[in-house]
Task: structure prediction
Amino acid sequence: MDNHSMIKNTMIYEHIKDYLPVIPILELKKGEYLFRAERKTGNLFYIFDGLIKVENISYNGKKLIVDILDADNFVGPISSIHNADFQCSGVAETNAKVLVLKKSLMDELMQNDEFLVMFYQKTSKRVYVMYKNILARSLFGENEILAHYILKHSSGDIFKYKSIYNICENLGISRRGIYNILYRFEESGCIEKLDSGYRIMDRAYLENVADQMIKYMKNSEDEA
Result:
């Protein structure tokens, strides 16, 4: 599908179609940064293909994954709308394509009530999802969180992952913690190590470990 067709399928299209000739399009390779915390431009972006990961790195080097956004979402220093700066950066989780919404254009679009409603609906929903995920990390133990992650990201009975580091990054659990929990799961017989992941041998065991988190996440989704 060409760029125009993909853009036409987004919720923002009707609001920006007259501006498309002057809106830049950026095409990013996986791992390429879309924006960085230390470089202030005032621009926002609209994803129409691929995934963008938003991350925050603390003064001592600890990385927190704030959100991972897919197509048909705003991304960028959105906190600046509220005169805040959360020091986040955005990096392509996959190859991605985005529209560059310059500050002057955003100022003009925000004068339109229909656009304003769409903008705040989309961004407030993302804030809700981020809050839900951060709250889950406080409410549940690391074994519950990892069991839920394995179940959610398995295909059939196969759980594949890019790297242990990637799991640590997404769940906020240390590398040692991940290895220890996986070892205990292996010892219990509920998973079996493969060359590129794990085979789930006892799904009921993992579902029992993650039971309260599964219910919490389902209830949260029902309320959204």
User: Anything to note?
Assistant: The CA atoms of residues 31 and 49 lie 15 Å apart. The chain has nine helices and twelve strands. The chain has two domains: 3-115, 139-222.
